[in-house]
Amino acid sequence: MIDGITTYGSTDLIEKLQKCDDPVFLLTIGTTDTSTIPDISGAGATPELTVYTPAADAEFLVLGEVHCTQTAAETVVDGAAAPTPARLTKASLQLSEIPFVIIDAGSKIKADVSYYSFGKEHGRDIRTGKGIVNPLEIIENGKDLGAELSNRHEMLIIGESIPAGTTTALGVLKALGYEANEKVSGSMPHNPHDLKSKVVDEGLKNAGITPGEADAIQAIGAVGDPTIPAIAGLVLGSDIPIILAGGTQMAATCAVIKALEPNFDFSRINLATTVFVATDETADLFGILKQIDDDITVNVVDPRFEESENEGLKNYLTGFVKEGAGAGGAMFTALVLGSSVEELREKIEKVCRD
Fold first, then answer.
1. 113: burial class by Cβ within 10 Å (0-12, 13-18, 19+)?
2. How far is it, in rounded angstroms, from Cα 149 to Cα 241?
3. What residues contact residue 326 under an 8 Å CB cut-off, 6+ apart?
C-alpha cells in the first residue's frame, strides 16, 4: 500500500510504474462551444473564459506562466475561488521528474507552446447535434502517436483539459446506451445535472440519435468533444500499460474504446483520479465504470488538502474543481515514484504561491 493512494482493483500497474524507467505524461487539450453555456462549467472565471483554460493549462505546464490570456485559470463561485488543477499537475511532474508532451485535439485558443495537433477544428455546441466534425481523423492521429510513443516509452499517463467535459462525456455515454444521468461529476459545488441532461438530450434529438443506438463515431460526432477520440486513439494505438489520468471524461473514453474494440483488455489500463471525484456525492464514477467493464482498476489519490494553509486548495474540499489537466494521475505518479503526501502537498502549495 502507498500512503495517499487507495486502489480499487489490481495493483499490477502500480508495480509496473515503480519499475518503469521512462514513463511519459500526455496532456490532451480541447474545447467545445458547449462550455460557454452559462452555469454549465466552472473551468474558468466566466463562461467566456472557459475556452482559454486548456491553452492556459498547457502554457502553465510548459512555461510556468500563461500567454494566451491575462486571467489565470481558476474556478470562481459566489466569490470563492480555487486554482486550476494544472497547478497540481505541474507540482507532481516536477516531483516525479518525468517528461511530458502537449496534444491539441481541437482547441479554439491555441497554446503558445509546442504540441502535437490531432485536429484543426474545435468542438461546437453539442445542442446542435454536430459537436465534432472529424472524430475519425482524431482517432487515427491518436493511434499513430500512441504507436510511436509505445516504441519510446514503457508507460503512458494521459490527462485532459476540456471545459464542460463532464457534459460531453454524459452525451457520449448516453448515446452509447449507458445509464449516466446524474452520475457524471462536475467542477462546481453544485452539479447542474438538469442543465447537462437538457443540453445532451437536445443534441441527441437534433442528431436523430436514440440513446443506445449510436456507434462510437456517431456518438462523438453528435455530442462529444475532441479529447475523447484523441485519448481513445492513443490507447488503441499503443501496446503498453496506460494510466488514464481523470474521472468522468476517462469513463466516457473507456466506453468509446469498448465500442470500437469490444474485446479490448481493460486490465492494461488504470484510471487514476482524485478523492474529490471518487467521493463526489453528486456523481457516481464507479457506477459508470461498472457498466463498461469489471476489470477497470481505479486509483484514488488524496493529497489531504484539509491540512493545507492555502484557502484555494481547501476549496477543493467543498466541491470546487475536483479534477482536470491529469491532476489525479500526475499526483498518483509522484506518490508511486517515491514522494510522500506531505512532500506532494507542500510542492503544490509552492507552485500555487509562485
1. middle
2. 12
3. 25, 26, 27, 89, 157, 158, 159, 160, 161, 245, 246
The predicted pLDDT at position 18 comes to 94
Give residue for cell 467521493: 279
Confidence label for 119 from pLDDT (cuts 50, 70 and 90)? confident
Q: Show the CA angle centred on residue 73, arms to residues 135 and 37, nearest 5°.
A: 55
Rounded Cα distance between 284 and 277, Å, is 9
CB 32 within 8 A of CB 131: yes
The interaxial angle of helices 248-260 and 227-237, nearest 10 deg, is 60
According to the 3-state scheme, what is the secondary structure of the chain?
CCCCEEEECCCHHHHHHHHCCCEEEEEEEECEHHHHCCCCCCCCCCHHHHHHHHHHHHHHHHHCCCCCCCCCCEEEECCEEEECCHHHHHHHHHHHCCCEEEEEEECCCCCCCCCEECCCCCECCHHHCCCCCCHHHHHHHHHHHHHHHHCCCCEEEEEEECCCHHHHHHHHHHHCCCCCCCCCCCCCCCCCHHHHHHHHHHHHHHHCCCCCCCCHHHHHHHHCCCHHHHHHHHHHHCCCCEEEECCHHHHHHHHHHHHHCCCCCHHHEEEEEEHHHHCCCCCCHHHHHHHHCCCCEEEEECCCHHHCCCHHHHHHHHCCCCCCCCHHHHHHHHHHCCCCHHHHHHHHHHHHHC
pLDDT (mean) for 264-289? 95
Query: Which tens digits make up the pLDDT trace of 196-233?
Result: 999 999 999 999 999 999 999 999 999 999 999 999 99
Tell me what pLDDT residue 235 has.
98
C-alpha cell at 353: 504561491
**Tens digits of residue pLDDT in 42-99:** 766 678 889 999 999 999 999 988 888 776 555 544 445 678 899 999 999 999 999 9
